[in-house]
Amino acid sequence: MDDFKENETPVQAGPEIVFEKVTKEYPNGVRALDNVSFRVAPGEFAFLMGHSGSGKSSLIKLLMLEERPTSGRITVGDIDLGSVRSSGVPYYRRLVGIVFQDFRIIESMTVFENVAFALEMLGQSRKEIEKQVLAALDLVGLIEKRNEKPDCLSGGEQQRVAIARAVVNLPGLLIADEPTGNLDMENSVEIMKILQKINKMGATVIVATHEREIVAGIGQRIIELNHGVRLLGDE
Amino acid sequence: MKGGGAVKKLRVIFYVLLQSLKNAARNLFMVFASIIVVFFVLLVVGSFIEAGIVTSDIIGQVKERPVLKINFHYYVDEETAQQYYEAIAASPEVKQATYISKQENFENMLKEFEDNREYFENLDKSGKLKYASVEVQLNNYADGRAFVDGIMEDAGDMIDSAPNIFSVVEKMEKAQFWINICTIAAALVMTALSLLLIFNTVKLTVVARHREIEIMKFIGATNTYIITPFVIEGVLTGLAGAALAFLALGGVYNGVYKLLLSFSEDANIVPLTFAASGSSGILVFYLLFGACTGFIASIFAARKHIKV
Ligand SMILES: Nc1ncnc2c1ncn2[C@@H]1O[C@H](COP(=O)(O)OP(=O)(O)OP(=O)(O)O)[C@@H](O)[C@H]1O
Ligand SMILES: [Mg+2]
Question: Rounded to the nearest whole angstrom, what is the distance from the C-alpha of residue A195 to the centroid of ligand 2?
């Protein structure tokens, strides 16, 4: 666990993220993003804000390569997402950690297994997997609960499992789509603290939310969307 | 990261294998149903194939040794019978003819009914159990039918019966045609059935694991990695059905073999043993069939539901 201490920057150096005139129009004609440009500096902590339907999740889907932009250019570090072919998408995603509002952890697996799951496909040894999983669980404060099943955990704890899974592979970029949407204030604050901790270790972190209270306590970079159009934000 | 590429690949393969076994374990009922269906499919198709092989082998044996037996009426005396035997022996179609006297025939019958010897000996007083025969082997199978017909025309009033294999072969050849049709029909219907069942089995597993699949996708699992456990599940199901079907086919065959052997004593035809009946080819066919149907069905089930 020693090799996952704060300030030691165990994550890959956070990449810079650049959106240039990005438009996303769905096949049904809905324009979720309209000519959006912004830049997130390497290792920055950025909030993606806007009311429901303003295009936050769409922007994240573009970042995850779940969707492709209708026009415009997105770069993550030195990767131009437009040049990533569909066969390359899985490899790109291994450089990005993602957390969702609904946790998306597997009920039939223990906490440990849920986190280890992300490493199995990389063919790492039991020992390596155990070391990394325990480090990630330590980061989110769930070492003691590693053998519990998710149904014994609170919502906040389940979200912490999801965060551990997202960072176990030490990605440089962590994206969270409404990570506190299903949580009470106390748990939300806890989750935000963990995300900040990961950011301090060097990762670029992007958090989509419409909860102003969450953002207020942190006072970081804010990218605000309104009907798919970027409203404000310091460049 | 440490560890050679090959070692990592091996670990991943091992993990994927484990996942497919876990999949199968969670879906035991459907897997079992699929195995049973593949089993029946192959058993039925294999039985038809074996029936075809054995039939054509028997036909071949008969054609190589075209034989018939002419049994005279009991009231035909030996002298007349022997005259007729000489006429037969002289005809050009005949390769070899053997005369069997009344007494020889009777001894043979007594041997066969050893237990009731006394009864037959008493019965013999009437003289109706004693008849002479001629055993004929022809040069060509093709002459057989006409030869039998000719004899019956010439001397039908003297001949009680002329048991011959030619009419049986004609029936067998007709049967062979239908066996082939049935084999093809059964193979088609049953293949569709196997595909459908394995498809559904794997689909159930995929649906049951759709959350995991979704998660795997966003943590960077490749399509191959996601699909492989399902494909392995399908292939293993097919192979299990195939292996069981082969064992059962062997059992059924040996049962039928004994039956055939007891029937074929008269004609001196030895049916093929299981090993000689092309069973190794059938084993290969079974395993290929099991693996291929499992592979195809599961690829479709997984592709359709994983939406790659
Ligand atoms: N797959 C899709 N096909 C068509 N339209 C879509 C699709 N996904 C999103 N949209 C539309 O795009 C717009 C933006 O949706 P998006 O989910 O990005 O908003 P959001 O800011 O994440 O909202 P929320 O806060 O409710 O999660 C909405 O009008 C939505 O209906
Ligand atoms: Mg959303």
Answer: 19
